[in-house]
Amino acid sequence: MIVFESVTKRYPGGTVAVDHLDLEAPKGRITVLVGPSGCGKTTSLRMVNRMVEPTSGRVLIDGADTAASPPAALRRGIGYVIQHSGLLPHRTVLDNIATVPLLLGTDRRRARSRAMELLERVGLTPALAKRYPAQLSGGQQQRVGVARALAADPPVMLMDEPFSAVDPVVREQLQNEFLRLQEELGKTIVFVTHDIDEAIKLGDRIAVLRVGGRLAQVASPAELLARPVDAFVAAFVGRDRGYRALGFAAVSSLPFEREETVRLGEALATARDRLNGGWVLVVDAEDRPQGWLSEDGARLAAQETVTEDALNLGGTLATEDGSLRELLDAALSSPSGRGVVTDGEGRLLGSISPSTAVRLIEERSSAPAGAPGTGEEA
Amino acid sequence: MIAALGRIPAQGGQSPPGLLGYFSAHRTEVLHWLWWHAWLSVLPVLIGLVVSLPLGYLASRRRWAYPALVSVSGLLYTIPSLALFVAMPSILGTKILDPVNVVVALSIYTVALLARVVADGLGAVPEDVAQAATAMGYTPLQRLAKVDLPLAVPVITAGLRVAVVANVSLVAIAATIGVPELGQLFTNGFQLSSTGPYYPPIVLGIVLCVVLALVLDLVIVLVNRALTPWRRTEAHR
Q1: Which of A248, A276, A302 is the last residue of a domain?
Q2: Yes or no, beta carbons of B128 and A75 under 8 Å apart
Q3: pLDDT tens for each residue of A133-182
Q4: Which of A49, A88, A158 sits opposite B129 (nearest CB)?
Q5: Which ranges carry the ABC transporter domain (chain A) (predicted)?
Q6: What is the SS3 assignment for B173-223?
C-alpha cells in the first residue's frame, strides 16, 4: 500500500503544486489520479519514487518512509511508465526491457531471458527483440515501456499518462491488455491521467485533484459518477455521467424475448417468411448474430440466399452478464428496435426492447443503495 | 598553383626537381614531418577531449556554468596561435623548441571548442529518456556513463571532426618556431623561392595536410559509426 501523509510540494517562488495530500493507494489495486492540468497529479506521482522531494509530509510504501531509502535503490523497486515510453534509443528492445534487472545485478543471460518472456507477455513478437526503439510504432513502444517496468517484478508501479500519446484504437487495446495483465499480476498501481473516461475504465479508486493540488474526492468509479461531491467534480466527471454510470450496473436475470432467426446461406424466401416488424436477425452456423436483414434488403438482394453483404450491421451486442449501459446501447442502436443479447461465447440468447431496458434501469434506481455494481467496496 | 604543378615535371632535368622529384629527394624528412604532424594534431584532440568531458558535464548540469564556458572558450579562440606558441615557454617553463608547447597550446584550442560541444551533446538527451533513466534507478554517474554520453556521441564526434581538422592546419604554423612538421615544407618553399618562385615543397605540404586531415576525419566518422549502431536503423524503419 502507498500512503500519502499530508504531502505538500511548494516550489521556490511560492507555487504550490500539491497541497496537504492525504491519500491511500491500496495494495494490488489501481488508484487513478485525475484532474485538469496544474492539479499536481504528476508531481504527486513523482513524489512516490522521489523524482520530486516533498516540501513537507511523508510518502510511505508498505509502511516504510520513502525518504529513508537512497533514491536509486528505491526507484529500482518501483516500475515506471511514461507517456512517450522514454525507451533508451541506443539500446535494443531486449536490453531496454532488461535495464532494471541489470542495474540490480542480475547476470546478462538471465536478464535477457526474463526480458524475452515479458516481450511476449505484453503481446509483442520475439522478432522485435533485436530492434531499436526508433524502429517500433508508438503502440509497440508503449508495450515495451510496460514490459520494462515489469522486468524486475516490482510490487509497485507508477504510470504517468502511459496511453495518451497513441491513437484511440491502439489506446483501447493497450488499456484492455493492461487490465488483463493487472488481473494476473495484482500490482499496486498509481496511474495518472487527465482523461476521466480512462480513469473510470481503469481505476479501482479514483482521486480527483483540483488546480492548486488539493484533493477533491476519492471514490470508486461508480460512486464518483453517482455522487460527485461538489460542482467541480461533477463538471469534471462530465455531462453524460448518468449514462456512463450504467456501465457499472450489472445485469442479472434478463427478461429477454425469443428472436426468430435465419442462417447465412438459407433461402431468402425463408427470411421473408420470418420477418418481424420488417426485420429478421441473421446468425451463422454456431448461432452467433451477424446482423439484421430488412424487408427491402431481402427484396433487393442479388442472390437467392441470405448473404453477408445484404446485412445491416448497425446494432451493438449486449452480453448476458454485461452492464445496463451495454444493454441500453444494444436496444437503442438496433435498426429493428430490438437489442440483441448473447451469452459469453457470442451465441444468441434473445432480444430486448428499449422499453424493457429502461424498465430495468428504473428498477435499479429504486433499489436500495449498495446495489450490485458499486465497485470495490462490495 | 595547380597550373604550376602541371608545368613542373615538363621542366625536366636542368630546372630544380618537380613535386615527385622533390618528394623522393626529401623522402625521409618529409615522412618524419608527416608523422610528427599527425601526432601533434591528434594528441591535443585526445587531451582536449579528456579535459572537455568534465567541463562540458559541469556546464550541462549547472545553470551558471554554461554561459561562463561559452564566453571563456570564445575568448581563448581569439588568441592568435602563433602568440600562444611563443607564450607557452614562459608559462610552462619549457624550451622554445619543445613540441610540448604546441601540444598544450592546441589542447587549449581543442578544449575551447569541445567543452561547449560536450555540454550541448549532454544537454540534447531527450527529457523523457533522461527522466525514465533516472526513474529506473540509474545513479547520476551511471546515467552519465550509460545513457547521456552514448547518446551524445554523434554530437561530440561532430565537434571532434572540426577540432582535428582545425588542428592539422594550426600545427603547420608551429614550423615558424622550429617544430618539425609539414609546415617546414612551407618554410623551405619560401626560402627556396628567393631567386624565383619554387612551388613543389609548398604544394607537397598542402597535399599532405589535406590528405592527413581527410584520413583523420574518416577515422572519426568510422569510430562514430561503430559507436552508434542505433542511428543507422532510423533511416529505414
Answers
A1: A248
A2: no
A3: 999 998 899 999 999 999 999 999 999 999 988 888 888 888 999 999 99
A4: A88
A5: 2-237
A6: HHHHHCCCCCHHHHHHHHHHCCCCCCCHHHHHHHHHHHHHHHHHHHHHHHH
